[in-house]
Design brief:
With about 500 residues, the chain is of the alpha+beta class. It has 17 helices and ten strands. Helices cover about 60% and strands about 10% of the residues. A hairpin with a 6-residue loop joins strand 3 and strand 4.
């Protein structure tokens, strides 16, 4: 009877999470498509057959089959097979510059998107895709929107650790292209205007050229071009790397701050509608200014759904919103499933919802300040612990100090992001805000560098892919058991 009650509890919980039931088979199909290609007609027939079984026979297996095949089909349609880039001989490429070039210690650095390559036989142009790192002499000026005709090689990534090279390939980078007077056949100036570029250029004008200013730009508008590799390594080793990029944490903080600033709007006519609209618009403008990073998009989707629930006084399901955000993002770009930023963001939020929030409630006291401190410590610890296997697999280290100092780092990072947003939106105050925000960033840099130099601050260990899968399967199993046991204890009635 106990086992049957537990199974019924799990069934009721999954019934209340329709988006999660849709996400799981769809994500499985996307993952399979990354490793195995099938004919499109096979996937189409499998999708239609699953829909027919689900509609006529009311079988869950039919719906799961249809969603799995549809995820597989959508991935292959979104990213068809492309030409293979030759690495053993020079080839002519068309490249579109994606961001303004940044001057570093080894010349100028930028990023570009491959558009086409010319074959050696026949001289035909073949479409290709992927991103490349562009490097050149300091005299070269690259602006976003420029079109380049380059005759040379795309060198695979050889520097850095194996985990770094694997990460860059997952994010769609093909390698590095070195530009010189000999290899650069044509350079046509272009104009690229979007909110991200405008915000990045504005922040460069209002900040200086120190590494503290580079951190402010990275955390506010996602401009990481001026960060030195040594500083990046220090943040990674100290467990504070998630602060360098615009993430769900920054988006969630903006969501709370805008709601607090507009608390007075509901007192006027239609004020509640205006408040909800302003909050959602502010969220997505912030994400657009940061260049739509996966973690920030995830947070914006979840906060938009939360704002909709607040506007309609309806119940908000956090796990349903989490699954809806993942499903929508994978529909838009299936390759995000292999991006470490996407994975870390969703794993951290899942751990917070499934373990961090229940533990915080269990440790609740009657002292509010104690509750805030304990909740911040528990949620930060749970998120860091849940993402530790992925961090070990992708970067080859487990930051131990980050498990304990996450709340302090989050508080300092929140002040920097808030000040950076004010610096971006309030030009008259840049003389006052810029030194203050850069001072906080300098303090954060010192903290990261100090923690990185500690002997036991990080564990250099790389988990295998199989080990990571086993760990997260165990995490899912323990979560399911916890759900069932908790519900069983709540519904158990002793015999009289």
């Amino acid at each position: 009877m106990s086992l049957r009650l537990s199974l019924r509890t799990l069934q009721r919980r999954f019934t209340a999470l329709p988006m999660l039931r849709i996400l799981l088979p769809f994500a499985a199909g996307v993952t399979l498509a990354m490793h195995l290609l099938l004919p499109l007609w096979v996937l189409t027939i499998a999708t239609l057959l699953g829909v027919v079984i689900a509609l006529l026979l009311h079988r869950t297996v039919g719906l799961c089959t249809a969603l799995l095949a549809f995820g597989w089909l959508a991935t292959e349609l979104r990213f068809p097979s492309e030409a293979v880039l030759p690495t053993d001989l020079p080839t002519t490429y068309r490249i579109r510059v994606e961001e303004d070039g940044a001057l570093g210690l080894r010349g100028i650095r930028s990023e570009g998107v491959l558009e086409a390559q010319r074959t050696t036989e026949g001289g035909r142009w073949l479409p290709v895709s992927g991103r490349v790192i562009l490097r050149g002499d300091s005299t070269l000026r690259l602006q976003a929107g420029d079109r380049l005709l380059v005759h040379g090689r795309i060198y695979p990534f050889r520097q850095g650790s194996e985990s770094f090279r694997r990460l860059m390939l997952r994010r769609g980078y093909r390698g590095t292209c070195y530009l010189s007077e000999r290899s650069l056949l044509e350079h046509r100036a272009g104009v690229a205007q979007n909110l991200h570029l405008h915000a990045s250029r504005t922040m460069r004008q209002r900040c200086d050229t120190t590494q503290a200013a580079a951190v402010v730009r990275a955390m506010t508008v996602g401009d990481c071009t001026a960060l030195h590799p040594e500083l990046r390594a220090a943040y990674a080793r100290s467990g504070m790397a998630h602060l360098l990029a615009v993430s769900g944490l920054h988006t969630g903080m903006l969501f709370v701050v805008v709601n607090l600033l507009l608390w007075w709007l509901p007192v006027v006519r239609y004020g509640h509608l205006m408040r909800n609209l302003f909050v959602v618009v502010a969220l997505w403008l912030f994400v657009a200014a940061a260049g739509f990073p996966p973690s920030a998009v995830r947070a914006a989707v979840m906060c938009t759904l939360l704002q909709g629930a607040l506007a309609t006084s309806s119940r908000y399901g956090a796990l349903n919103s989490w699954a809806a955000a993942a499903l929508g993002m994978l529909l838009w770009n299936p390759r995000w499933i292999g991006d470490i930023g996407f994975q870390l963001s969703f794993v951290a939020v899942a751990a917070i919802l499934l373990w961090g929030v229940p533990l915080s409630r269990w440790c609740h006291t009657r002292w509010r300040m104690v509750n805030w401190f304990v909740e911040g410590l528990l949620i930060g610890f749970v998120a860091s612990l849940a993402t530790a296997p992925l961090t070990s697999y992708s970067f080859g280290l487990v930051p131990l100090t980050g498990l304990l100092l996450s709340p302090i780092a989050v508080l300092l990072g929140s002040l920097i992001v808030g000040g950076g947003v004010c610096l971006l939106l309030l030009p008259p105050l840049d003389g006052l805000l810029a030194p203050l925000v850069q001072g906080l960033a300098s303090l954060q840099n010192s903290l990261a560098e100090h923690l990185a130099t500690r002997e036991n601050g990080a564990l250099d260990y790389t988990l295998t892919q199989e080990a990571v899968i086993i760990i997260y399967l165990l995490f899912a199993l323990v979560t399911l058991v916890g759900w069932a046991v908790k519900r069983e204890q709540e519904t158990y009635l002793p015999k009289q």
